[in-house]
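Hey, can you fold this one?
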Amino acid sequence: MEGAMASGCLLLNDHSKRAACYRKLRLQPKPVNVCWAYTLDLASGVLLPGVLGVILAAVCVSIIKNVDGAAEFVRDNVYAEQVVSSLGTMLVFLVSLRLGANLARNAGVIGQFGNLCGACVNLAIWARSLVTSGKLSINYYADIDGGQYRTTEIGLILASIPYIVKFQYRYGASGVKLEQLPVGADEQLLARARALTNPSDPNNAVPPFLAMVVLLGQMFDDLEHANQIGGPELGLVFNQLNALTGAEGAIGGIDGYSQPGVLTALMYLLFVLYFTLFTLGDIAINNSWQGLWIVAVLVIANFGLFQVSQRYANPFDIRRARSTQKPLITDATRGTEQAIDAIFARKRSIPVPVSAETQQLATFSLGLTGRR
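Sure. Predicted structure:
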């Protein structure tokens, strides 16, 4: 959530009103600023690389034009066509490799996040059956419009998990504000969660995601001890929890992997070395000031594409108003909360007494209704 908007909710003294304010911020999509998003993408992928290319070309052409004997010295002692050709081939290979790796990372994280949201919804559907049978109580919390919405403590936890994973991989564990999430609507539940994430002994603190899993496990254990659910049902629940933690673990594995720092440093060094040699020994001598736009285009085609792929490598950093890719992570978190709310909001239908005459009516297989 945006800091300025969230700080406005903090000014509310009543807990229920503050929770409703945070709920409004979560469920109302932020406005899309397409122009600003394309401006940022073009700035990182076209403008910045193009300016760097123009500066490099201007320096090289100035040296060749203004320093006596510079062209002959470069040809005889610096420029080697075989070396530049080899560097160019290696650069194309590395850029293509990193470009594919960044886009694959983006797609992989989004796919696993979808699995995580699906596991949350599956658990909510199963928990809804406990409400129908009277084994799980429904609670009412303050809603956006001043009314109330119905859900359960399990529903609040499940709706919070996608937000926790999103903010954890965007800001780190310290950036997760539990009071701003669905779990913050229930004061007692929020206190239990904070006791796990911020205990008196910091050595016993657990990450927010693990805290939610622990709370779910405790609740299902309590239901089993109260003979509300049996062993087979508990096994089914923990299978779903395994799917939930497995998806989060896969996200952590994809997001946590990074190329060795020396490879990234060498690639940037390769960019500088190749374009400097190529511009100084070939373009500046043969094309003069035309080399400015030539080098700019070449840098954009290589370094610019790499910069754009780096920008979108982590889908958790994608914001609706700052990127041209659809914010699938943000939409999935909101959609999961809305789906879980809808699951627990549905009231059990009450059977309506049927008259004797109505019982004599039958529905034929063709969809027609008539008397027997």
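Residues 198 and 205 are 6 Å apart (CA to CA). Let me know if you want another pass with a different chain boundary.
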